[in-house]
Amino acid sequence: MPVTRDIVATYRGPRRVVRRLLDMGEREDRALVMLVGACVVVFVAQWPRLAREAHLAERDLNPLLGGALMAWLFIAPLLLYAIALISHGIARLSGGRGTAYGARLALFWAFLAASPLILLHGLVAGFVGPGPGLQGVGLIWCGVFGWFWLSGLREAEWSSA
Predict the structure, then answer these.
(1) Is the entire prediction scored with pTM above 0.70?
(2) Mind listing the pLDDT tens digit for each residue in 80-133?
(3) What are the boundaries of each domain within the chain?
(4) Which contacts qualify for 77-85: CB closer than 8 Å, 24 or more apart?
(5) Which of 111, 136, 104, 120 is nearest to 46 (CA)?
């Protein structure tokens, strides 16, 4: 199934999508592509906000883009791998029977599946700026991401399938 269809299907039932991805077998390359794809989307989502900041502060945009590139494509993946490992450890202490790969897949997929809302957040940050609209979109993204991640982690760690 194409990734866009899987993203849409995740909004209807995140556990089913994660189960289907887990049933495809342990492929670290697949998990890494999901993570890098999500990080690229988040990096692109930062462009409107960074352009706004550069314009308002009368600064050059390129250093801001370079910093965002470094953060999202080099540092964030390492941090997300660490978060996935920690979540797997907590799940194991709570009686989870899954694998570290399942925990990584659940986190990385949640991050990628919630990426349309990150793009919306970036647009609001760039065109509207700080305020209740930006906070609202950010809160919605956090809620959706948390729902996807916890649902996927539950499927990966505690599902009997």
Answers:
(1) yes
(2) 999 999 999 999 999 989 999 999 999 999 999 999 999 999 999 999 999 999
(3) 3-159
(4) 77/35, 77/36, 77/39, 80/35, 80/107, 80/108, 80/111, 81/35, 83/107, 84/108
(5) 120
